[in-house]
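Work Package 3 (structural annotation) set out to generate three-dimensional models for the target panel prioritized at the project kickoff. During this period the team completed the workflow that converts sequence records into discrete structure tokens, so that structures can be stored uniformly alongside our sequence database. As a representative example, we reproduce one entry of 127 residues exactly as it appears in the project archive.
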Amino acid sequence: MSRILLVDDDPVLLQVLPDTLRIRIPELTVDACLSGHQALDRLLGSDYDAVISDIKMPNLDGLALLGKIQAGWPQIPIILMTGHGEEELANRGLQGGAFDFIHKPIEREAFIDSVRRAIVARHVRRQ
């Protein structure tokens, strides 16, 4: 059983994406939270195979969250999400160690593929 953490300040997205993931990857458990600070709290008590985070969030944005996760949990792959036209933010995320980035609006097949690759990468790192 694999487990991921989804972080986005959009409650609608936090309802839709976990369902999409569970349908396509049935063995997946998806935890969701509305902020970077909540994500850090969840990481303290759980072992995740990947973190998927929006870049643009209030208080602790996705790039800052990426840095904190890289410092505390460098083995966890991080997939960043950003709106079209935000290429500079996506590039900064990749340079900062993100595993991948997904454009919003999300193209379902690319999203599922990225999550699967991140989970495999995490399992390889564990071995």
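The chain has a mean pLDDT of 93.
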